[in-house]
Amino acid sequence: MPFTIATWNINSVRLRLPIVEQFLKDYAPDVLCLQETKCPNELFPEAAFHALGYGHVALHGQKGYHGVATISKLPFEDMVRQDFCAVGDARHLSTRLSVGGTRLRVHNFYVPAGGDEPNREVNPKFGHKLDFIEEMRLVSAVAEPGVSALLLGDLNIAPYETDVWSHKQMVKVVSHTPVECEGLTRVLEEGSWRDLVRAHVPVSEKLFTWWSYRAREPLVADRGRRLDHIWGSADLVPHLTEARVLRDARAWERPSDHVPVLVTLDLPVAA
Predict the structure, then answer these.
(1) Strand 68-72 with 31-35, pairing
(2) Parallel, antiparallel, or unpaired: how do β-strands 2-9 and 56-60 relate?
(3) Which residues contact 107 (CB under 8 A, 6 or more apart)?
(4) Cβ–Cβ contacts within 10 Å for residue 100, how many?
(5) Which pLDDT tens digit goes with each residue over 78-117?
(6) Who is most buried in 30, 36, 84, 215, counting CB within 10 A?
């Protein structure tokens, strides 16, 4: 049975609710993971999602900053909020659900951006980002026997040369520095994860999910970065049928600087 999951750093869910609603009407993923919702749990617009057929909403919100939300047509079997680096930020939300005959753990992440200077000695935000990535090494795709896993969200790192518009000009810029890229690669490899988007779109092909607000015509200049990712446990790779990045969403009315990323899996039907 087909199952589609999407991730989108929405940069304020209440401000951009109209384009989220339109996205759900047009693309109808089974699960949508949002980041940077900038909304405490009690003010999250749950009713709008219920009205569109998404009756299950898991939240880890925070006033004015950060925040992640997982919105689903399918019921959750559990929900876990983890405080990475123990600083009280709402940057992680884990849910488990069943899709046909597949039990599925979904980790929704919003990794710190890391500031502007790639030096933890002068920029504590960069140090925080590196520490966060270090803790993510403990998140494993095979942690639960009999449960497949997805890890997705705004990971704020573009790990491959083709994940940025110019490797030469970006290699010393936060999000594409060697220490960040190597750190994220360790999370991927040690956690037995597979990059589902790059399993569908070859690494030889440039692919971006974020364009700066500073660009007057961002999709024309196309100086983007692939900061948003969908990973899966190895058992899900044979079921992958499609991976999409909705570039055009960067030109929608009052857009986020990130665009939605979707993956579709053809999962076994329950016996």
Answers:
(1) antiparallel
(2) unpaired
(3) 92, 93, 94, 139, 149, 150, 151, 152, 153
(4) 15
(5) 999 999 999 999 999 999 999 999 999 999 999 999 999 9
(6) 36
